[in-house]
## 1
Amino acid sequence: MSVADAHRAILATWRIEQPRLITSLARMLRDIPLAEELTQESLVAALERWPTDGVPERPGAWLMATAKRRAFDHLRRGRMLARKHEMVAREMEAEQQATPDLDSALDDEIGDELLRLIFTACHPRLSRAARTALALRMVCGLTTEEIARAFLVPEATVAQRIVRAKRTLSDSGLAYETPRGEELSARLGAVLEVVYLIFNEGYTAARGGDWLRPQLCNEALRLGRVLAAVAPHEPEVHGLVALMELNASRTASRTDVDGEPILLLEQNRALWDQLQIRRGMTALGQAQELGGARGVYAMQAAIVACHARAGLAAETDWPRIAALYVELAEVAPSPVVELNRAIAVAMAEGPAAGLAIVDRLVSETALKGYHLLPTVRGDLLEKLGRREEARAAFEAAAALAGNRRERDLIRCRAEALQART
Amino acid sequence: MRFMFIVTSPQQQPPTPELLVEMHKLADREIKAGRMLDNAGLMPLATGAQVRVSDGKLSVVDGPFVETKEVIGGYAIFELPGKEEALASAREFMQLHLDHMPGWGGVCELRAIASGPS
């Protein structure tokens, strides 16, 4: 094996094993920055040894054994300072010697360890930006450079955020453990929010066109699946997984060859990913079975599921979607939800019924700068044959649209109306 | 990137109990880690059939199957960052066969799954 081959093999294994290594060490040492440092040392050791000795039969176990050895050394060095650590080290060493089947021991602990790490990274004491960066760095193993590129911020900003967040975690000496019972449900919200934020950052192509953005979607999906596997009784976890899987199933059909966005009703549904739709539907079913049908994520997933079920755009169950938006507005009222309901009502009952809802939203201050409100209004007015009013609405929308492609599209519609008036 | 792992072997014997346990453990870990999206073992050849097109004709072969060189034993679908990770994963999977099914030989072929035009 050439040195380059060995390096590639090491980095691949490293990427897969890193979160597991960090979590195991963090648990031993109760110190995340130190765990990360010692884990890095095991990578360095692998880079030194594998090219000459060959890749071990169980590369993951090799890395874990090496990292743990460093952790034991560290605990032993600290023995003068803290007798307790020595005891911990001895206990752990004894424990390790008593379990020669290292692999199966590792397999059993992964779920809990990862969950602990996710809850720590998404601790409520950290800012939302810090939680997101820390989760991507520690749980997903992305580099600070990758995170910076994905979020279009300078690398130094991300690095600083992560350093500060880790310091906050170390200084506050907070327990590195998974909350239980009511506290788990309370803290879970913050975790799900971070995961959904990561997903949306990758999904909405509002800014940037970097290849890393789909990777953010994949990492969020993976985190969601991890959470669903380790906290299977929480309905909203399944609801969020359903929402992400179902939305991600349309990725291939969302843009044309030039990268121009294609609207949902005009997408080629043959390109929708059926494996992902099936997984999304299963997750939604689980959320509902656990009594979570009225969770915010589950309800949004139920709406997306209506689209996923329709083989043709014309087969979409709009009355059901409109009814789901009513339910969603009861749990999470927002003018944006109301605007979406207006679109569904217009599809189900006709443009006049939709317009009645939109007109009630015009005075809503929260939507003052929101270009989609006049866009939807213009669309409904045009369908009703009120061309002059429609044109004015499109012009107002074009003035508010921040995205160039969208602005051009809206302007075209306004001009088309003027030409025929 | 999505990958399909296809395991083929000239031998048709079922996996040993030890191998089954180990494969289950590995699958459980990979599912929990959010990497394995789907997987399944396939029933013996006799439970299936082959529908073939050759020389401009369609024919159905519904057993008995003789002279089969390689039989697909199962498949798995993974979501991984790239080919290197897929290779590492397949290596780990095949190491289990080496450890827990003496005398067995076979191939785990990994292929990237084609995605849409974007």
## 2
Amino acid sequence: MTTEPEITEELIAAHGLKPDEYAEILRLLNRPPSFTELGIFSAMWNEHCSYKSSKKWLRTLPTEGPQVICGPGENAGVVDIGDGQAVVFKMESHNHPSYIEPHQGAATGVGGILRDVFTMGARPIAAMNALSFGSVDHPRTRSLVHGVVEGIGSYGNCFGVPTIGGEVRFHPAYDGNCLVNAFAAGLADADKIFYSAASGVGMPVVYLGAKTGRDGVGGATMASAEFDETIEEKRPTVQVGDPFTEKRLLEACLELMRTGAVISIQDMGAAGLTCSAVEMGDKGELGVRLSLDAVPCREENMTAYEMMLSESQERMLMVLRPEKEAEAKAIFEKWDLDFAIVGETIGEDRFLVEHGGAVKADLPLRALSGSAPEYDRPWEAPAPAAALSEVPRIGPIAGLKALIGSPNYAGKQWVYEQYDHMVMADTIRRPGMGAGIVRVHGTEKALAFTADVTPRYCRANPRQGGRQAVAEAFRNLSAVGARPLATTDNLNFGNPEKPEIMGQFVGCIEGIGDACRALDMPIVSGNVSLYNETDGRAILPTPTIGAVGLLDGLDRIIAGPARPGDAAVLIGTDGGHLGQSALLWEAWGRAEGDAPPVDLEAERRNGDFLRAQHAAIRAATDLADGGLALAAFEMAEAAGTGVTLAEDDTGRLFGEDQARYLLAVDPAALDALLAAAEAAGVPARKLGGFGGETVTLGGDSAPLTELAQLYRGAFAAALG
Amino acid sequence: MKSAVIVFPGSNCDRDLAVAFEQASGTRAQMVWHKETALPQGLDIIGIPGGFSFGDYLRCGAIAARSPICQAVVDFARRGGMVLGICNGFQVLTETGLLPGVLMRNAGIKFVCKDVDLQVETADSPFTSAYARGQVIRVPVAHHDGNYVAPPELVARLRAEDRVAFSYRDNPNGSTADIAGVLSENRRVLGMMPHPERRADPALGGTDGAGLFRSLADALATA
């Protein structure tokens, strides 16, 4: 056996442990840790696994409701969708790995989130991703976009889950630190959810899936540090994905779960074997003994340290009913996957790791997760945004072209055509506009999915920005007729040790909490990614909200498209808020003014109205970035017919006031709809109509075909 | 119509194909695991579904074509049995030699998933009889390696024998002569890259693909 290195101050610092954290380890153990133990502590106590800076604030979020079967704390959230079925979902970031090695970083991000979902016993039925890249002309952006999109496609397409939506944005604040947030949702029987808490003493701990290699050793620690110019040296900490193995692991796990053999199960994600074993023991109030000699390895002479910290993909840890061992083994042999008993549960509060006849770690298990440090980091609220100075005049069509000619608002076909968005043959609404919809297989129900955030707003006004992210998700679900059920949050921020960054975090969380309470969309799962900085420059605060809505019948879908002759109806107040607007940024490169305020009562009232009136509405879209003008164009483009609005004021056309929608309404249904709106106290007004060959905004006009060509070509022209 | 769908470990359109068979015929398809060496008795048709049979890290379909069940599929086809291969299934069928030509990386290098317009090139087959020759149908593609490559003499022969089943109106992958699907000499084996099973249900936005399964059900009901 090789001897383990001596514990020095440099070694402690290299593991990302602060002096006070190391002092706490000495206090807990009453002795210095071994090298393997130091690695285990660093894996459990880094920001990525311990949420040490964010925990205090995450506790303030609403996580309960009659629809919630399981909230945060497990691999994914579980929400009731009626008829004994549940939707299981989560969103998680893979930002740092994707910047270092975009293809594999993004691919393994997808793999990780899919595992989180099927670990709970759910078959994945939909995926989304929210991507933020640096400015289009930054030298690294194009290769990052290509690598990330290919990576996501390569994994999801092979695994066989439809990728049905997401976001792609470009902003210089992400030049040195792209964001890759991956969402997955699965379907399970509500009474057959699998959890991670072990139970019973002396139960076998089983290792399933792919073999362990040296890839990803120290990955979770890497994900909890800022970047600098040494980033290229970190490439070996990125894992490599194998979607074919993941697909087999999915099928084998679901098959095994049906046999009743599984007591508890946990995927090996960040900090692999360490984190999964400790979590199962901790939740079950048990200890765990691991014998690493039995771990299937694909490299020779792996040390205990490497095995405990490896982030090799497509692996699971499970506590098994001993009488079912032969049956379980046969299933994994059928799928040609490794199956090895690597330990057992023990009665004491102890995490015992043995290798080659020696004890490599002997730690108090509960303290490893329970005693993880928790910080109440100092924070300061950002100064209120300066008022918006005068906005230059711009013609309506010129303003629209500034938006649809930008990769931020152009059609994203180049991206989503690389994702299989129809596999499983239940995709009802494909990517491209608003929420994606998949049918619940074999039923007349459907689920809608959306991912939203407007980082410009979050920087200008974190609390309103946090509210707006949830409100936009609520609107996107409502606009297709879906009843918003619950939310997952993927909170991407800079270095929390800086009070102004912590202030952004706190403000956004408060706003998200406000909106989730008011709109009855509890947070059931999520992920925090901090230290998204390079050379001291932070990203825009980006709390991505993933949300799920339910359609009780396929006839409740507001499907669209608009038809020629339909009336164009604005739901909500007239626009005028140009602060932090897309127009301001895309046309003049200006980020000024306050974020639009979010009236959550109006959001709820207007969204509820839309769903109640679904039968009277042909097509609907929410008004967000780009305001009325962009919404009208997108609806017209999707329908292949023109649109005419009697508006030419810049504020009315491009203002980003909230709680608004644009509808296409059959003229025969119009009067009744407007009357119903009045009765419900919902502002509604006919602004024009669909039809013809042009997009006409007030006195300005352009052929739809010309605009559509710009819209469909701009993304590929800039980045293809 | 007694049907079976072959399941490789990386198949991911197996359920979709089984649903389409059942919707057309009213009879449930049998799922057959790739490690089996024999097929169920009395089958009318075998479906080889889309997906990534063995990860497609080598040539797509190459390992699947050498799996135990594929020998049985080849024997079944040689005895006149009917076989439908979609997407990865088409790749498997070319790798077994049941269909000529090869499928290479898309000309545009990238994976492509979108609706395409297909022209029905022949109605003279048990897979296409419900369509009219020259009819244009809209069906999705979703593949990385769908570029059908055939030498000129093979294309000439396929045309002369009326064995091109479908062609692309707007070629998405660089396929020779816009070929999207081909028939075997006896017209009882069809391989195609597009996914008719993804457009065989009105809820999914269209039923242009349903004609293929209706053709099969009709052919096998009267057989």
